[in-house]
Amino acid sequence: MTDVLFPALSEENPDAEGVLATWFVTEGSAVTADQLLAEVQVDKVSAEVLAPSAGVVHLLVEEEAAVPQGTPVARIE
Amino acid sequence: MTITEAPQATRRLTTSKAMVEAIAQEMDRDPSVFYLGEDVGAYGGIFSSTTGLLERFGPQRIIDTPISETAFIGLGIGAAVEGMRPIVEVMFTDFMGVCLDQIYNHMAKIHFESGGNVKVPMVLTMAAGGGYSDGAQHSQCLWGTFAHLPGMKVVVPSTPADAKGLMTSAIRDDNPVVYIFHKGVMGLPWMVKNPRSIDEVPDGEHTVPIGEARVAREGSDVTVVTLSLSVHHALDVAESLAPQGIDVEVVDLRSLVPLDRDAIVASVAKTGRLVVVDEDYLSYGVSAEVVASVTDRDPTLLRVPPQRIAVPDVPIPYAHDLEHAVLPRHDRIERAVRTAMGR
């Protein structure tokens, strides 16, 4: 089981909040390693979140939700 | 919190990622393909048309240019004439005014003027469209202008899969192809959210033939012929009217040159009612051409007068409410469909 974290996009503010802009996978779908899972955004900077390993993905955060960076947004089993 | 939803096989991309995937695959396959334009390198394209390509292919093949469209389109034409397959980006269709001579007198006419001896296999990409308060000089579509001028193909994808397939076909085409992407279909996180800009995209090689329209939604009552972002709006309207017993067929042109007149006529032959939705200017443009495609062939197919929903021949306002008033959005499309149905 692997947690997928919201990436640290802001260096000067470790507690910065970001938005989970887009999910590219749905709850319970099978993913391969390095598959695109989500796009996240802090201010105007966006970044891709890739699957760290293969497995079945569980989404922990809804699209459009604001979360502090470093928060687990998905879990891969 | 866990979101529960039925599991499904997914390999979804935004339109911009699908477009980039096609460019990358063609660059892998063919060393003569390269990309140049303003902010296409380190920035990745201001509307994410080239994200990640500089890191992957280096500055010899992903080239940031100075702000001189005439010079760098000319560079692309020269490279194409000598056998390369350049993709040249003009940041906004609105900027065509500073470089139109290179586009319509050179890129589009060299093949003709050389008696077919010289080919210009280049792609000219441009971002188009409004809806996000960027003002009158950064919100135009203008695809009708390129389609009006002979010698170049014009494609206008609306979905991620078509963005990939049409880009692949455009790069491989021996003719100059103008590839216009609406900013509102790219799936950019900082733009207006558009759920239809993320969808399944075929893995590996994927081509879409240039000149073939697509029936985006089948219906029996009214044909809506449209393109680009307006396809998404028309589908929204079609879904909202379905429970009221109005069955809308949505035809996505995908390509303006060549124009799939057979697909337009076939749909109107079925429904007898035509609404054309175009985010370009109303007069002398795509919407009239679509109507003429039917009336040239058989005006008796139309049971009610055709309607054209487009930008009413005014510059596009900056003010949000005024801009939305001139754009062909859901309210105007729905009114036109209801008028066609007499309800």
Protein model, in words:
The complex is a heterodimer of chains A (77) and B (343). By secondary structure, chain A is mostly beta strands. Chain A has one domain (2-76): RNA polymerase II/Efflux pump adaptor protein, barrel-sandwich hybrid domain (OB fold (Dihydrolipoamide Acetyltransferase, E2P), Beta Barrel), CATH 2.40.50.100. Chain A has no helices and eight strands. In chain A, strand 4 and strand 5 form a beta hairpin. Chain A is elongated and about 35 Å long. In chain A, 27% of the residues are buried. Chain B folds into two domains: 13-200, Thiamin diphosphate (ThDP)-binding fold, Pyr/PP domains (Rossmann fold, 3-Layer(aba) Sandwich); 214-341, Rossmann fold (3-Layer(aba) Sandwich), CATH 3.40.50. In chain B, the strands form three sheets. A seven-stranded mixed beta sheet of chain B has the order 3-2-4-5-7-6-12, sandwiched between helices. Chain B has a five-stranded mixed beta sheet with strand order 9-11-10-13-14, with helices on both faces. In chain B, helix 8 links the parallel strand 10 (222-226) and strand 11. The termini of chain B are far apart. The relative contact order of chain B is 0.12. The interface between A and B is medium-sized, with 22 and 20 residues.
Oligomer: heterodimer
How many strands, what sense, and barrel or not for the largest sheet of chain A? 4 strands, antiparallel
Strand content of chain A: over 45%
Mean pLDDT of chain B: 95
Largest sheet of chain B: 7 strands, mixed
Question: What is the β-strand count of chain A?
Answer: 8
**Using only CA atoms, what is the Rg of chain B?**
20 Å
> Which percent bin holds the helix content of chain B?
25-40%
The domain count of chain A comes to 1
- Would you tell me which CATH topology of chain A applies? OB fold (Dihydrolipoamide Acetyltransferase, E2P)
Query: Class by helix and strand content of chain B?
Result: alpha/beta
- Please identify the structural class of chain A as seen in this structure: mainly beta
Measure the end-to-end span of chain A: 5 Å
Output the CATH topology of the largest domain in chain B: Rossmann fold
CATH class type of the largest domain in chain B: Alpha Beta
The helix-strand sequence of chain B is EHEHEHEHHEHEHEEEEHEEHEHEHH
Mean of residue pLDDT values of chain A: 90
Protein name (chain A): Lipoyl domain-containing protein
Domain Lipoyl-binding (chain A): 1-77
Keywords (chain A): Lipoyl
Pfam family, one (chain A): Biotin_lipoyl
